Amino acid sequence: MKKLFVMLMLAVISLGAFAQNRQGDQQVGFNIGYGFDSENATLGVDYRYNLTDEFRLNPSLTYFAKNDGHSAWAIDMNAHYLFRLSDQFGFYPLAGLSLSFWNWDAGNDLSHNETRLGANIGLGGEFYATSQFTIGLDLKYNIIKDMDQAMFAVRVGYNF
Fold first, then answer.
1. Closest CA to 35 of 77, 79, 91, 74
2. Phi and psi of 4, rounded to 5°?
3. In sequence order, what are the beta bridge partners of 105?
4. From CA 26, how far away is CA 157, in angstroms rounded?
5. Surface-to-core class of residue 15, CB atoms within 10 Å of its CB (0-12 exposed, 13-18 middle, 19+ buried)
6. CB neighbours of 113 closer than 8 A, spacing ≥ 6?
7. Cα–Cα dist 44/3, whole Å
8. N or C: which end of the chain has fewer CB within 10 A?
9. Within 10 A of 25 (CB to CB), how many other CB atoms are there?
10. DSSP letter, residue 137
11. What angle do CA 159, 89, 31 make, to 5 degrees?
12. CA distance to 76, 78, 141, 147, 148, per residue, from 118 (Å)
């Protein structure tokens, strides 16, 4: 009876396999996160396009919510190389470029703006919840002159 139960459970689990990630697949996503050095909460949107089954491009737009008088917008273009751990889980190293627009507001109509080009390097993981929805986590290090920081984001994506 025990063996039958285990076999039945394995069959049910295998029915839930939803991994997509085929050449030409696309996703749009929303993420929330945090920048550790700037101490800003982040909100972002992104798009993912699979050039091959394993390699995809990921342009994104992120807003760093105002904290201590500073906020920012960042436009990123990252590349992911996917490793499927199972039909429901995958992880990927990521690397890319970042263009950020920082604003410091000192009050009394005093403000300072800076635009910085940087690089991203990190890791991400994703859970294929259904054939259309993905839940993931990105951990990356944003390398920018005088403004390096580690960041993380939780993401929900829609596959089409």
1. 74
2. -65, -40
3. 111
4. 10
5. exposed
6. 101, 102, 103, 104
7. 47
8. N
9. 14
10. E
11. 50
12. 9, 12, 10, 9, 9
Q: pLDDT (tens digit, 9 = 90+) per residue, 40-58?
A: 999 999 999 999 999 999 9
Residue 4 has pLDDT above 90, yes or no: no
What separation, in Å, do the N-terminal and C-terminal C-alpha atoms of the chain show? 42
Domain positions in the chain are: 2-159
The pair phi, psi for residue 151, each rounded to 5°, is -140, 155
Contacts 24+ apart (CB under 8 A), 58-65: 58/94, 58/96, 62/31, 62/33, 62/153, 64/35, 64/38, 64/40, 65/40, 65/41
Residue type, 57: L
* Confidence (pLDDT) at 11: 47
pTM equals: 0.82
Q: What is the CATH number of domain 2-159?
A: 2.40.160.20
Locate 40 and state its tokens: 């800003």
Q: Among candidates 31, 116, 113, 117, which has minimal Cα distance to 69?
A: 113
Tell which residue, 73, 76, 78, has the closest CA to residue 63. 73
